[in-house]
């Protein structure tokens, strides 16, 4: 049946299917893979994919996929208390004695009940191999006092607001600010909050975030005794519009020569605020934000309002003025997002409820948890079938998931062994990948006898960033992915980057398609758990020429999923 669907596009795939029919998969053929003969292994995995695709193409022709609904969390019964108790005793991840404050990263000055996730996440996550440096801890405590002094409704905040309403910055204000505005999906937002926070830390600013309707009730307050939420009476009113063409955008100000970096510092005019536009389509003049001389100017601006969707932290490592500071803050260069993300992002109690209900129901009892983050974009295009094949090839070739066989070997013993499954957490906007993987492990035994459970929390089918409920689920899933032991992520996806960073995981990154086909190899292990800065600035402002940032700093490398992009590695 599947063969009748072959077009020239799928010719290679179909010919493998023919081979399956003629030569079924046997134990000895599997053994070749175990013996490490990678070429043979690949062949066998392809056979498996094809064997299963054959069945599923048949199924697909009969199933209305849109009618398949995954049960919402909570619909599948509660966890047996005794089993959970056993897990508690045996699993290292459920140790209440673990360091709740993450090695001093978190302040102890919070009411625990107001934000349960802040102190409970250690019960669900694998312990981090990275301790924050004592310098980072000290800087965070100092930042918290600054934020308390300058936060909303304080006299110093009011003074700075008065200055904002004049049209120039002054040099003697105690409180200067970095205002973060939302742009794009949850992953993008979390990356840009961390970028804004580290920028604020380096430049002695206070971070305030604009919380609009779709993003209420996502995160707890990260700084004790104050708020990071920008008050609703903040006087700049057009912050939600696109800043690319605004006259207050820093890049436009330089382009239009409204500000002059080489002016005499005693007479120069410094605006009371500027927009910094760092969305992925930023232009050359916007990119001047990354130039050190421009930073000297920006340091004099009392209010910076950021609109961005990129993780621009790696560029800070190119600034000589902050080199020593960054070295002390982050002796391990690939743990920047890991520490700052764990410091800043604590899901509210309602989202923590989603996370823990799902975890306790579907992941807690597993002997190992594998997260598959499956995200597709309109460009570069890859079909469902090709991407599915790529995911399975990656998972099986890298031995993250067991291969299947067509030989049923049922145990003959009279007593029933309780087996702990390997749990696969599928996170995707769509339900089809989950259906395929679940059916594969239901319809075929695994060659090594492992039991595989597969589940997916939601499949929203469409990105709806403007809806609060949708964003809450997205955040819960980002968080759930960060709790797994092994992670596979999709290329260019900030959703995946955040999960890997929070989880301290070096994922296997699925590589971008090659001419709409699954690439070879299908995936690559990440060099570091740091997110990728997808759109770096390739210009050396002092030398006035293009330069690859990788040539400037040994801690910076090209990303696995995008060769022009950069990331921090240790
Ligand atoms: P990116 O586009 O992959 O870089 O990640 P973003 O998080 O910035 O934007 C994608 C948005 O689409 C998410 O924030 C969600 O709103 C939605 N989305 C994408 N994938 C998933 C998923 O697997 N689960 C859920 N619940 N939402 C998703």
What distinguishing features does this structure have?
570 residues; binds guanosine-5'-diphosphate; Rossmann fold; 36% helix; alpha/beta; 2 domains; globular; four-stranded parallel beta sheet; six-stranded mixed beta sheet
Secondary structure: helix percent: 25-40%
Low-confidence spans: 1-37, 54-97
Shape: globular
Q: Give the distance, in angstroms, between the N- and C-terminal Cα atoms.
A: 51 Å
Beta-strand share of residues: 5-15%
Q: How large is the radius of gyration?
A: 26 Å
What strand order characterises the main sheet? Answer: 7-6-5-8-9-10
Please, how many helices? 18
Mean pLDDT: 85
**How many beta-strand segments?**
14
Major β-sheet profile: 6 strands, mixed
SS class: alpha/beta
Indicate how many domains the architecture comprises.
2
Bound molecules: guanosine-5'-diphosphate
Structural topology:
Layout (H helix, E strand, L loop, with lengths): L10 H12 L4 H8 L3 H23 L20 H10 L25 H9 L9 H17 L4 H11 L10 E6 L4 H17 L2 E5 L40 H6 L17 E6 L13 H7 L4 E6 L4 H4 L6 H7 L6 H9 L4 H15 L4 E7 L9 H14 L24 E7 L3 H12 L8 E4 L12 H14 L4 E4 L4 H10 L4 E3 L12 E3 L13 E2 L4 E2 L9 E3 L7 E3 L2
Parallel strand pairs: 1-2, 1-4, 3-4, 5-6, 5-8, 6-7, 8-9
Antiparallel strand pairs: 9-10, 11-12, 13-14
Bound molecules: guanosine-5'-diphosphate (GDP).
């Amino acid at each position: 049946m599947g063969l009748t669907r072959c077009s020239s596009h799928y010719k290679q795939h179909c010919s493998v299917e023919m081979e399956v029919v003629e030569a079924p998969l046997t134990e000895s053929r599997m053994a070749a893979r175990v013996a490490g003969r990678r070429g043979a292994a690949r062949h066998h995995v392809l056979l498996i994919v094809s064997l299963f695709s054959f069945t599923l193409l048949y199924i697909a022709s009969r199933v209305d996929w849109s009618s398949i609904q995954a049960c919402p969390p909570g619909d599948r019964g509660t966890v047996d208390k005794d089993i959970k108790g056993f897990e508690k005793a045996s699993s290292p991840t459920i140790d209440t004695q673990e360091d709740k404050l993450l090695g001093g990263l978190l302040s102890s000055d919070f009411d625990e009940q107001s934000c349960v996730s802040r102190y409970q996440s250690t019960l669900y996550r694998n312990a981090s191999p990275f301790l924050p440096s004592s310098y980072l801890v000290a800087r965070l405590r100092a930042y918290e006092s600054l934020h308390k002094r300058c936060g909303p409704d304080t006299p110093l905040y009011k003074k700075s607001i008065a200055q904002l309403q004049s049209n120039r910055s002054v040099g003697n204000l105690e409180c200067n600010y970095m205002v973060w505005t939302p742009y794009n999906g949850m992953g993008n937002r979390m990356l840009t909050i961390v970028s804004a926070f580290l920028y604020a830390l380096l430049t002695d600013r206070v971070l305030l975030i604009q919380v609009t309707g779709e993003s209420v009730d996502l995160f707890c307050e990260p700084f004790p005794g104050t708020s990071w939420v920008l008050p609703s009476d903040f006087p700049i009113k057009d912050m939600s519009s696109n800043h690319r063409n605004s006259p207050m955008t820093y890049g436009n100000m330089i382009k239009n020569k409204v500000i002059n970096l080489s002016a005499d510092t005693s007479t120069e005019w410094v605006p009371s605020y500027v927009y910094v536009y760092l969305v992925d389509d930023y232009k050359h003049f916007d990119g001047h934000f990354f130039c050190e001389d421009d930073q000297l100017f920006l340091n004099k601006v009392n209010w910076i309002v950021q609109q961005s969707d990129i993780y621009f932290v790696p560029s800070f490592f190119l600034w000589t003025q902050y080199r020593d500071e960054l070295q002390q803050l982050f002796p391990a260069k690939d743990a920047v997002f890991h520490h700052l993300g764990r410091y800043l992002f604590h899901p509210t109690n309602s989202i923590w409820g989603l996370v823990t209900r799902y975890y306790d129901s579907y992941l807690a009892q597993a002997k190992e948890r594998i997260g598959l983050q499956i995200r597709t974009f309109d460009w570069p295009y890859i079909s469902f079938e090709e991407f599915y094949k790529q995911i399975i090839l990656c998972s099986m070739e890298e031995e993250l998931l067991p291969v299947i066989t067509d030989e049923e070997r049922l145990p003959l013993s009279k007593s029933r062994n309780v087996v702990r499954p390997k749990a696969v957490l599928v996170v995707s906007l769509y339900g089809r990948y989950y259906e395929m993987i679940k059916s594969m492990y239901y319809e075929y035994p695994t060659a090594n006898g492992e039991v595989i459970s597969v589940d997916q929390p939601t499949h929203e089918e469409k990105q709806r960033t403007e809806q609060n409920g949708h964003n809450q689920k997205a955040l819960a899933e980002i968080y759930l992915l960060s709790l797994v032991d092994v992670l596979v992520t999709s290329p260019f996806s900030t959703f995946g980057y955040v999960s890997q960073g929070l989880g301290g995981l070096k994922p296997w990154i699925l590589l971008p398609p090659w001419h709409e086909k699954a690439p070879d190899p299908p995936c690559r292990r990440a060099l570091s758990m740091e997110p990728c800065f997808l759109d770096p600035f390739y210009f050396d402002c002092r030398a006035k020429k293009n330069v690859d940032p990788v040539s400037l700093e040994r801690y910076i490398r090209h990303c696995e999923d995008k060769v022009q992009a950069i990331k921090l590695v240790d």
